[in-house]
Specification:
Blueprint lengths: L9 H6 L7 H28 L6 H16 L1 H6 L7 H17 L9 H26 L4 H24 L8 H16 L11 H18 L5 H28 L3
């Protein structure tokens, strides 16, 4: 299961004040969202002009980023007990914008798309190690930041899986890599056992990184079909094992 190093304990989440920041925090967050959104729009426009992407690339990028922002903002009041968004969440917001540009590659058929996808995904992965470090350094770790970061990672894995299939590098079974986290979340709606909290796990964190790197290798334009298939298969096997171990842990501690 995908987990992040800056995940905070459940007890700390319960102690966080409700609606601690009021409108000031939301206003600052909106300014950050609009600023990053403007940069996303500019990047998508340049990609459309210089790389000859389709006319839908810009609206797809903005739609995905806007949807992510709308899902992000409500959690600030209850799970982010600080008066400002913080540098860590700002970095995660930039990662969200890069993922939006990556998602917009879905359906693009230009030859340069695999290279652009590889560059964008590499940037998202490299920035992944910065946000948690910044949050701990500033003393601003929160349940909101941990969840925000985790959702960006899940979206990245899902997008890379679809791109690996779209680019013809791996057969449709690779889509399981991106869908597994969301299938688990859907199952948790009906199975109470799966809604129980899991302890922090270095195994889960390591497998999350392995999964992202495996799919990055799968979409790279210089990867052969055999290399892409092998990397994606290793990532899927590791991810499946991680979910199975989490479910077994939950079952053992159900009492």
């Amino acid at each position: 299961m995908l987990e992040k190093p800056d995940e905070v304990p459940v007890a700390m989440r319960a102690a966080m004040p409700v609606d601690a920041q009021g409108g000031g925090l939301i206003r600052r967050a909106l300014i950050a969202v609009l600023s990053v959104g403007g940069a996303t729009m500019l990047a998508a426009w340049l990609a459309r002009r210089q790389l000859h992407f389709s006319g839908t690339y810009l609206p797809k990028s903005l739609l995905v980023f806007a949807a992510g922002a709308l899902l992000m903002l409500p959690g600030l009041r209850t799970h982010h007990p600080f008066s400002r968004l913080g540098a860590a969440n700002a970095v995660t917001l930039v990662r969200a914008a890069l993922v939006a540009l990556l998602v917009a590659l879905l359906g693009e058929r230009v030859k340069i798309a695999p290279l652009v996808g590889t560059v964008l995904a590499t940037a998202v992965i490299l920035l992944d190690g910065c946000d948690g470090w910044l949050a701990r350094r500033a003393g601003m770790s929160s349940a909101f930041g941990a969840r925000f970061d985790m959702e960006i990672d899940a979206a990245l894995v899902a997008t890379l899986a679809v791109l690996a299939w779209q680019f013809g590098k791996v057969h449709a079974w690779v889509l399981l890599s991106g869908a597994m986290r969301y299938l688990f979340a859907i199952a948790a709606l009906f199975i109470a056992l799966l809604r129980r909290p899991l302890p922090p796990s270095y195994r889960a964190k390591s497998i999350a990184v392995i999964q992202m790197l495996a799919l990055l290798a799968a979409i790279a334009p210089w990867s052969s079909l055999s290399l892409a298939t092998g990397a994606a298969a290793i990532g899927l096997v590791c991810l499946t094992l991680s979910f199975l171990l989490d479910i077994l842990w939950l079952a053992r501690h159900a009492a």
